[in-house]
Amino acid sequence: MTRRITRTLLVLTSVLLVLAVVPLAVSLTARERVAFRDSQRAATRVIAAAAEEHLSDHRPPGALRGELAAAARAGDCAAVYDASGRLVARTSCGAAVGEEARELVTGVLAGHEPEGPENEGRLLTAEPAGEVHRPAGAVVLARSATPYHARVAAIWGWAAVITAAGLGASVLLSVRLARWVSRPLSALDTTARKLGEGALDERADVGGGPPEVRWLAATFNTMAARTEALLHGHRAVIADVSHQLRTPLTALRLRLDVLAAGAQGGTAAELAAAQEEVARLSRLVDGLLAVARAEQATPRPAAVRVGEVVAERVAAWAPVAEERGVRLAARAGPDVCAALGHGHLEQILDNLIANAVEAVAAGGSVTVGHRPEPGVVRVSVTDDGPGMPDELKAVAFRRFGHPRARGTGLGLAIVHRLVTANGGTARLRDTPGGGLTVVLDLPRWS
After folding, report:
1. What percent of the chain has pLDDT over 70?
2. In this predicted model, what pLDDT tens digit does every residue of 372-403 receive, in sequence order?
3. Which of 82, 166, 180, 329 is 20 to 30 A removed from 395 (C-alpha atoms)?
4. pLDDT, tens digit, 9 for 90 and up, residues 225-245
């Protein structure tokens, strides 16, 4: 943002400076040329007045020589011609004689008012001595253009200085403006990221930046406060439900155990069925609470070595799989890290391995593998069990989405909530040759 604002203001300032400074410099240059020409013509007319007295009134040339001497002291070159174009007098400098000077004299004697060109760094001008239409002669004055060029160079130099100063001020102003706008936005982005990582008490600073950014920060703080209140409320409800349900279920199970210890015949069978239902209800409550916790998960990503976790969970579940006659193995893969919340990958794999081991018949196999993909780590749990129809795959990640599940039907729902909370994706596909494969794309740690 800082660069975009700086570039935009710099372009706008450059355009404004060009539109303002360049025409001003051109105008001042033209005025300087007019002033220089007027001054030169005035000096030429003074000499022409003295030349008229000498040529028309036949007065002594003393006054004319004095004016020519004054012109020479001023650094000018002057020459006086009579009505026939003959050179009458001149300064020691010869810049006022020559072909160009004679052309000017011819034009003046013909009644024109020509303006001479610049010749070897000098500007020529000619004035009639006497009346314009019947002059008694003509005067040509050559003046060095160096002072004129110096003043023009100064004009454009100051124009360049003003432009550079304006551009510099524009850069400083744009950088200050960009930082004034971008700093609170960057701080707001940092706060939002921390809030998303689980720091629910994070709040944005509402004291800096433009009013619109301060309003945005205030709105964000209101949203964050409400989110924190909702999450704390949900967590409190989960804690209360966990306590209020587990305690009576535990007490009921203990009473049934006591009754079953002395029961005989049909009563013992009924009590055993009641115990099984209580155990099933306990598992269901635990599963619902696990789903609720997964839905409220606000993970703080950390680097998790996927290969180590896979090997650890496969080793932990190996006795269970062996007891059921299922081959459980981990497919070796490269050492790669995923960005996940603490303990989430273990919980995900526990649910997936438990489901796979339960679904596969004795003699079947379950394989857990991982490999890096662009931007993600792909983890797969593959079994050769009965598989799952397409209509069940579409709803498998919902709560109780698999009505024929042997367990609570909440394992895949927990997996889906944890994976998506960490920014990953989960999908089901058929295993070649029969069975089901769960594919997880987890964000890669960079």
Report:
1. 86
2. 999 899 999 999 988 888 888 877 877 554 55
3. 329
4. 887 777 666 666 666 666 666
Structural domains present in the chain: 2-150 (3.30.450.20), 211-295 (1.10.287.130), 302-443 (3.30.565.10)
- Cα–Cα distances (Å) from 160 to 27, 31, 157, 345, 360, in that order, read 15, 19, 5, 65, 84
pLDDT of amino acid 93: 82
The percentage of the chain sitting over the pLDDT mark of 90, rounded to a whole number, equals 18
Residue range 272-276: mean pLDDT, rounded? 77
Q: How many CB atoms lie within 10 A of CB 38?
A: 11
Tokens in use for 269?
Answer: 């069978």
- The length of the chain is 446
| Other CB atoms within 10 Å distance of the CB of residue 143 | 25
The amino acid present at 153, given as its one-letter code, is A
Measured over the CA atoms of residue 390, residue 395, residue 396 and residue 400, the dihedral's sign is: negative
Q: What is the pLDDT of residues 276-324, one digit of tens each?
A: 777 767 766 666 566 556 555 556 788 999 999 999 999 999 999 999 9
pLDDT tens, residue by residue, 246-256:
677 777 778 77
CA 440 to CA 347: how far, in whole Å?
13
Tell me how far apart the alpha carbons of residues 207 and 194 are, in angstroms, rounded to a whole number: 19
Please report, in angstroms and rounded to a whole number, the separation of the first and last CA atoms in the chain: 25
pLDDT given at position 401: 46
Could you tell me if 302 and 341 are in contact, meaning their C-beta atoms sit under 8 angstroms apart?
yes
Can you read off the two tokens belonging to residue 268?
A: 């013992």
> What whole-number distance in Å separates Cα of residue 419 and Cα of residue 446?
18
* Mean pLDDT computed over every residue of the chain: 82
Beta bridge pairs of residue 439 = 380, 427
The pair of three-digit structure tokens given for residue 306, joined into one six-digit string:
């996927």
Q: Are 278 and 249 in contact (CB under 8 A)?
A: yes
Give the residues across from 81 on adjacent strands.
Answer: 87, 138
Q: What is the pTM of this model?
A: 0.47
Rg, Å, the chain Cα set: 50
Q: How far apart are CA 143 and CA 67, in angstroms?
A: 15
How far apart (Å, rounded) are the C-alpha atoms in residues 135 and 105? 11
- For tokens 């454009």, the residue is 156
The CA angle 38-43-48, to the nearest 5 degrees, is 115
Structure-token pair, residue 318: 């190996």
Largest CA distance in the chain: 164
Contact 444, 340 (CB under 8 A): no
Rounded-to-integer distance, Cα 407 and Cα 231, Å: 28
Q: How far is CA 58 from the centre of its chain?
A: 86
Residue 271 tokens, joined: 């009590």
